[in-house]
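Researcher: Next entry in the queue.
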Amino acid sequence: MDEVPRKRQRFEDTNAASAEQLIETVLRGKSGGEQVLQEYQNTETLTDAARRQMVNIPVAHMIDNHGNLPTKAIREEYALGIVTLFPSLKDPYSKKGYVNQDLTLLFDDETSSRLLQKWDVFFKPNIIKEAKQLTSTPELQRLVQSAESPPGRGLKSPKISACDAVERLVIFHKSCCSLEEHLRNQQGRQPYLLAVGHQKSKIDSFYISMDKHLIPCQANRSLGAFDEVFKAHFVFNVSYDVALVNFYTFLQTTVYNIDVGKMRESPRFKELRARLLNQPVALSLCE
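Model: Structure for this entry, 287 residues:
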């Protein structure tokens, strides 16, 4: 009874090996391809420049040999070869790497708890690692320092080009001031967090503000509050704030695995997700 699954697995393994050999041969036959292979062998990842070259060389080969409109099967063969030869570049949430990303998970307990379970031990350190590889600027340095600071001892939020987007996500409100007055002064807008406390470094409570109404958050920590405001979009069936679409799409697809492949994402976005999710999990100090 197991003969059919075994034959299918052998067929898939043979296809993967053949596709991998194709891509390796193509890279070794082109200028720059050897450097790409050597970099991956040494680091188990690729820089942005090497990744672009790794993709451009096989794509050029595919077009030269199969024309400007290669069939779906040909495209899948090349994609399979790439993610087999470079496994750390494969999107774990996709059935075939960067192609046919049609995996959709249900909204179960595991999906719902992904942010709280994985942020501190997995996503946060890997995002910091990625940030440190970017071109350094004073704003980026302050953001990294703030992210690496222990809870409750964060640095003052830096003024960066995306400050308007940040202010659409969370607004600080002094506990001595009237919440009703804050609501009266707000225009109709998408859900956001209202952080209430005596000072920004010591928040007493969080609220989800939407349509001039406040919904108390159960969480007393910023991560839990972000988790709740994200879920509020689905509970109340409201769209993301236009300034926060990329942020929420990152959470939706990369953290919660919701509608992966159905959301509009740039190639750069998919590459970042693959790099983050193929990093080793950081071990907790208490383990």
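Model: Confidence is low (pLDDT under 50) at residues 97-109, 152-160, 283-287.
Researcher: Noted, moving on.
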